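Researcher: Please predict.
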Amino acid sequence: MTTRVNISINARRYEYEVEDRTLLVHFIREQARLTGTHIGCDSSNCGACTVLLDGQAVKSCTLLAVQADGQNVSTVEGLTGSFNGLSPIQEGFRQEHGLQCGYCTPGMLMACTALLAENAQPSESEIRHALEGNICRCTGYEMIVRSVQWAAAKQVQQ
C-alpha cells in the first residue's frame, strides 16, 4: 500500500507517494536526497540516523515516513550558524576535534543540538546522558563532550 506524505525537511516541503513501510531515514536519503543522515544499524542502536522531529531528537530508522507526515524534520544539512556558516555545535566539533571517522557525527550533532535547545548549559553528566543512544567507535566521547561544552559556552556569549 502507498500513502502520499508531505514532510518539511530543513524548511523545505517534500511531497511524495511512498510505500507505507518506508522508513523516515530512507525518505530523507532517497526522496529528499539528503544523505547527511546516515544508516548505521537499522535497529536503533547506533544513533547515526538521529534527526529532529518537531525539535525532538529521534532515530529516523525507527519511524515510518507516514508517521512524520505534516511534521517538521531537521537534518544535519539544516544546521547553520554564525561561525563561517557552521552552527555552534558544528564549530565546537571542529574546535575540540569531536570527530574522527565522521560516520556518527551527523547523529551526534543532531542529538547535541536537541540537548542544547533544551538545556543551554548542560553538565558533563547531562551531556553524556543525552548521548547514550549514539555510538562512536573512534573518539571515546571525551572530545565530543568537550565539543558540546564549547558550543554551550559560545551560545551563552552570543
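Model: The mean pLDDT is 95.
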